[in-house]
């Protein structure tokens, strides 16, 4: 569970709500059931039309990806792959079968089992790259659903407000109620813009950033599996995989590792 | 027929309409024939100018693509290709001729007939990739027509409203009618924004998502046809084609299939 | 002449104009000479600054491309190339010289003459691809001029309206004229948004769509010329060039042609 | 000096100014020193933050590129390269040394001197491509500065107007001054939108279009230098370089040249 | 420290503030604590949801990159690499070990140590390119955080203003306070648009421009390290690395260097 995401969602709604209360507003005037129907109903409907049912069913999955923290640290993954490469060099790739079967991570497991099976290296790369593409496409689609909702919500808000204004302006019999009626019309804009910018768009962005991290980890694993299959020197493998990590002035960790690798 | 799309379209219009009625609005004040002419006429005209007649004639086809469910499941397609690869290995590719002629799917049929004819593998790939590009281009064009309409509709709405305001403000003799007249002007904005965001843009998005699924299926078929032509091991073909499908932690199906394939 | 484009342009302006008249507006209140100067003068000036004179001189050419129908049908072109490939196979490429000189289509003519001259195939491809790039660049530039004008026009409309409001609000001596004066200010917005969305942007889109069709035809010709030069089998050439055309379920034409080709 | 650019800039400002005067506005009400400070100061500051000092120093250079006409015609450049190729074929590349040293055009000069020096063809291509990339990057950066300013200016205008409205609405003691005060607030919007759309964005577009022409000329020179170094036939070089130019139906020039080349 | 950035940030805020004061506004009316909470709290929350905690922790690092001047001049870097190439040619690459260890620049140091270690050239390129990609990704992410904040801030401003208007319009008991209350509501828009356009977006742009310069320097170093490893002629290396710099008409520096190199 990524706490920053949960706290951010709550904090955003609180900042808006308490800002309004602090100004002297009444909580009740923020709640307008017709605007709720128009904005959330309209956004939901437009999003449902935009995607086939098979994609819409993946929304809970998308939410899980948005809130979940990356489960595997790249550095831990590098250690694991280097360890397995050492075993493979000493005892042959067949020695990895039990270890591979015990793995949680499906991409690494699948890749290692292909290596154990003696699959042709070129075919291994091809299959793992196709799997990587499938993950990328899936995550992009998930982010796109929220992005699409985030694009429709403000326009549904505008539609709600315009319909509210049409209603108000058609019945000017009682000018005294003009102000409150326009206020009601504005709640639709508020719902649309707030739901898009506090919920849909930030979640879409989170899914995308998490997907990028996942893809990067898959690339690291792919490079590691292929190097292991080619029987490369474990220290060279570590060096290569470390290059996926950032190396900036002032950062000592990677430099030390590289220095060590260089001395060996 | 993709029910999510049909229900979404109806639900969106209902959410807006009943939201307005619930607020106390009169259905009649949402119907304004001059605004209808300006917004729908203008959008239609601008879209007609944007595309050659040959593309506009494909709109019914585009609608069919938007509402149709994907007819072939990728998993069923994989089974079929693996079956045919088994036949081809045992009895030679000529044995596939009758099966190919009975196929509904034109891309697979065309590809298999080329294999049966003994077309050069490189030429087969080239021709099938050109056909794939033609499908991609066609679907993108279809989505673009709706996207273009979705871009013009809100601006036509603004034009209608501005013309309404020009009319109202030029004749302020009777200030009492100011409100209702402005309400009438606003219906143009409502038509423009609502038609774009409930109809044109969601349909464009749906056509694009469906096109992506179709292209992905064509890629799977292309890979399968070429592997079959190369006389590859049917289990390897299944393994390769399965990689087009998503492999995520928690998903057991593909893992099992791969495990089986690995054991054979 | 693409009738859809001409009718679309006229229909769009009519829809707006008669919508306004139907509402009870006076045609005269849509005509405001200062707004005309600001919006069309400003758009023209900003567009003139955006491009070098050499590009601006191509505007008539761009208009010609926007209104012209595609002159050559891809299917007719395929027939012609296959015919010439048959001649070239029977009588040698030199037999094509007269036919090539009689051609209207400069790309095909130029390519065939190079083949007749015995130009190296690699050089032929290189030169024809450079020519194709030149056409693509030119058409994109032409579309961009209209797109740029379509981007400036609405902002010029806003400038005109803001200037109108500044003028009106500075002189509130006679409140009675406030309404009509604001109406006048709004005509600038009307001109800007309408000219962009009924004229500039649709024409830009049309030029782009036509350019795509032209480029596709050039690619088909390029592939045909190279295949002819390589002395490929005319039926194979037809098969390859047919792949540039769409092959969809329900479409019989291409399937039949392919089936025929497969039987030969 | 590209006259279209200078005239366009002046014409745009005149169209707006005289449109306003014609409407009966007073020139003085368009001049508001606080709005000037907010809009131009804010735009300048935001742009200064957006780029490092080293890029900001290139603004005069960027302006020079925006206003300058292309100095070399592609056709003249082709003639020159073909002439030099003829000399190189007859007398060897060393004969080009004096001619190269006398050249104004640094890219061609540098390339020819490398050829004269006997630099390896692959290295020549590599170095010239790196130089081409450096030009492209530089021009894109220059265009981006103006584009960035064109993005900030309208928002600074909105900021100025909002601050003006805050000021006006906080002091409603004298309702008579409400109109003129709002008019003053609107001048900020006017400055922001007009400066962006009449100056910054058109100049950015001009720099980009000129850069494209320059890059195209560099590509032509690169191809010419490499062909000359390879000792290719001058007529073939002309044919190849001519392909960089547009070849359209109705255009006779290039066709004739190609016909001539074909007869030789 | 890049002074242009610091001065720009201060100047932008001053331009707006003093413009407002000059107009006769009271500084106090620009300070509204509820708007501060809504706009800055909302922007912070939405941005926090958009990125995983691991990326948010890099914000101080991102700010350091935004304000820091490029520490190494490309020309000085070229001199250094050419010097080292001269040493490597005379005394062998092992002679560079001490010099490499003394280097500040981690990319160059890491690359040279691999050369000293006798790492395979292809592997050296692969590792250095992976490191370059990691830097690029990291900087893009940093810029994206500020870009995202710059996208959310204006919408939070609109939310604040709409909530303010809802509050005002619901309580029209005292019409005299209508103006000042709307003024208060507008401060939220002011905060949102100003913070986005004076702070977030310019900083994002600065980080991106600096990242481009850094990547370019890394490319130059990569090319230099590989050339040095290949034992290329130092003058050729200088010539190649100089091509990363701009070569424009009127610029004498690079031309001279190239002329010299040509004479040697």
Q: Describe it for me?
A:
5 copies of one chain form a homopentamer. With 264 residues, chain A is mainly α. Chain A has one domain. The radius of gyration of chain A is 26 Å and the shape is elongated. Chains A and B meet through helix 2, helix 3, helix 7 and helix 8 of A and helix 1, helix 9, helix 10 and helix 11 of B.
Draw up the topology in text.
The structure is a homopentamer.
Chain A: H1 3-22, H2 33-50, H3 53-56, H4 59-67, H5 74-91, H6 97-101, H7 106-116, H8 121-170, H9 178-229, H10 234-242, H11 253-263
How many beta-strand segments of chain A? 0
Low-confidence stretches of chain A: 249-264
Helix content of chain A: over 70%
Subunit organisation of the chains: homopentamer
Beta percentage of chain A is: under 5%
Query: What would you report as the Rg of chain A, rounded to the nearest angstrom?
Result: 26 Å
Largest sheet of chain A: none
Number of domains of chain A: 1
User: What's the rounded overall pLDDT mean of chain A?
Assistant: 87
The ordered H/E elements of chain A are HHHHHHHHHHH
End-to-end separation of chain A in angstroms reads 40 Å
